[in-house]
Amino acid sequence: MTEKRSVLLVAHTGRPGAVRSAQLVLDRLTEAGISARVLDSEAEDLRCAGVDVTPVCGAAAEGAEMVIVLGGDGTLLRAAELARPSGTPVLGVNLGHVGFLAEAERADLAATVDKVASRAYDVEERMTVDVIVRENGDVTQSGWALNEASVEKASRQRMLEVIAEIDGRPLSRWGCDGVVCATPTGSTAYAFSAGGPVVWPEVEALLVVPISAHALFARPMVVSPRSVVALELLPNTSGGVLWCDGRRQIEVPPGARIEVRRGERPVRLARLHQTPFTDRLVTKFGLPVAGWRGRVRD
């Protein structure tokens, strides 16, 4: 009995060329005998006839071999929300600007789909973070993130007053705009903009990066992946906002406690190329490497 293969297509329909790219993907998948499904929120914009339509929910990628994403990193993060529950690999095709999480560019779209059809790809797991909010000791909210969980001030006029804790021990008190708790994958995103270090994806660690902190000690920190990072909002501070990947928002009142730890479920990314992360950095950030001669041969 022939295995029935299926792919979920997620697209940033507002991107120029997204509809044309989606149609190309669907045509080549059909030629390869692979069925496709699209989200009900995108079906009308994509104008793709003869494909299954699925609701936007945690089961959207259930049974799919892969989620192909057409867009930038924001679109891939949205797709990761749908793929994580079922462990379905996500493959990004960059239609945006930097597209750090993407594996392919629009110019390589046809070849990318052909590699998916021939199963010429590998899958790697990326660490996530799980987050809970406690009020008076009780868990009131929870969330997760692939890139980062950031606690930020809710009022522009007032700083956020927080005490950072690592593994049950107080570290420092900061008056700041916020604190970013990032994964290695997220080290090139918000944490990078806030002055944090770039961490290679295969390194397992948690990053803690204060944002515009008024404190003598407010350096970015890299802690164990087994650590639990807690941020306590002082009772007399203004309220804050917890953002997960800049997409999902949780209001955090004064006196609340936010705990960040390694996520129980990773996000799986499909890889077509064995490109070293160093090369990805150079390409995406346009880093100057002219004059490099490499190791002197023996």
List keywords for this structure.
Rossmann fold; single chain; NAD; six-stranded parallel β-sheet; 298 residues; 36% strand; 2 domains; Tumour Suppressor Smad4; alpha+beta; nucleotide-binding; globular; 6 helices; ATP-binding; six-stranded antiparallel β-sheet
Number of strands: 20
Element order, helices and strands?
EHEHEEHEEHEEEEEEEHEEEEEEEH
User: Oligomer, anyone?
Assistant: single chain
- Largest sheet, strands/sense/barrel: 6 strands, parallel
Q: For the terminal residues, how far apart are their CA atoms?
A: 56 Å
Strand content: 35-45%
Which CATH class of the largest domain?
Alpha Beta
Low-confidence runs (pLDDT<50, min 5 residues)?
A: none
Mean of pLDDT: 93
Total domain modules: 2
- Overall body shape: globular
Structure annotation, total helices: 6
Structural class, please? alpha+beta
Per CATH, which architecture of the largest domain? 3-Layer(aba) Sandwich
Radius of gyration: 21 Å
Name the CATH superfamily classification of the largest domain. Probable inorganic polyphosphate/atp-NAD kinase, domain 1
GO molecular function: ATP binding; metal ion binding; NAD binding; NAD+ kinase activity
Family: Belongs to the NAD kinase family.
Active site: 73 (proton acceptor)
Binding site for NAD(+): 73-74, 78, 147-148, 158, 177, 188-193
Notes on the protein architecture:
The protein has six helices and 20 strands. The chain is an alpha+beta fold and 298 residues long. It has two domains: 6-126 and 266-285, Probable inorganic polyphosphate/atp-NAD kinase, domain 1 (Rossmann fold); 129-262, Tumour Suppressor Smad4. Strand 1, helix 1 (18-31) and strand 2 (35-39) form a beta-alpha-beta unit. The longest helix has 14 residues, at 18-31. The mean pLDDT is 93.
